[in-house]
Predict the structure.
Amino acid sequence: MRHPSDLTALAGSTVLVTGGAGLIGSRITARLRALGARPIVLCTMNAYPEHVYANLFGVRSADPDVVLGDIRNTALVRELVAASDYVIHAAALADVAACTREPLAAIDTNVAGTQTVLDAVAATDRIRRTVFVSSASVYGDGNPKETDNAELLTMRQLLECVHGRIPSQFHESARKRPVSVYANTKAWGEEQTALVLGQVGTSYAVVRYFSVYGEPQTVKQNSHSWVVAWFAARAHLGLPLHLNGGGRQVRDMVHVDDAAEGTLRALVSPQAHTETVNIGTGVPTTVRKIAELVREHYPSTTFLDTPLPAGDPLGGYAAIHRMENILGWKPEVTVAQGVARYVAWLRNTPAAAPGWLREPTAA
């Protein structure tokens, strides 16, 4: 008897993965192939240099199941959707800083592009389920008053988090409070997915990723780069780690392997129909704690406390009861294990720590 989220149900199916050449998308497609499914990757492949996609993510534009294209291309999207059994819509301008600098570009890709995908899915009765990839950023900075399980946090966790401040736990039923252009586009995408696909009776699920990290992430200039990659790269180069606000911000760090696994389980679990599910660990981790884990591998690393930038959210962590109940699963990689894996990968791939990090403006 199959488990409700048994991934063997995907064997023999065709799955369109928009944004499938990126870090998480490439993990999803590799997992699909291992399960006996055929992934079709639709991606512009313009977020990184071509060698990053080929050498780090293992995706090449010449691969037979890779379609170099834009989700705003109506004819192309309809053609690919019509040939698929499932859709995972992960394509987006996902850089928070870039969305803030260029809000029209964010709206063009994350809003207009998402509408194109939804229209294509709604136009056919072939799609068994669509998963819309959203983000914990829709919760904003949270509301500590809504945290109803403070008693479940240990004193050690409280001290490690924010010196006694109870971090926000984000429940899927909480009101969305987006505080960035990127988060606004994701909140819109969630509502529009429910509206468009709900009207035609097509099954859908929404997954909200928390702070995804893991090899082979690499830092990007002029970007809100991922904290594990950022800290590890700087430590690898012998540079100090800057802790904005002392590093008291809280994150729920979920490894990329677990993010991919949770997404696929949302694709097949009968209970995930029309549901929104957090993909996180349920463990609050401070930025300072991440720095300390990195320093365990680079003992000479020093910390510099710097001011907390205006608008930098203190953050929170995922409520995971719904994820466990609906998907019958929970993430397996702890943040200590994930940091160790990343450091081991970085030592084998030293070019992933770019020299521009040594510049004073790269603090």
In short: The first strand starts at residue 14 and ends at 18. The chain is about 35% helix and 15% strand.
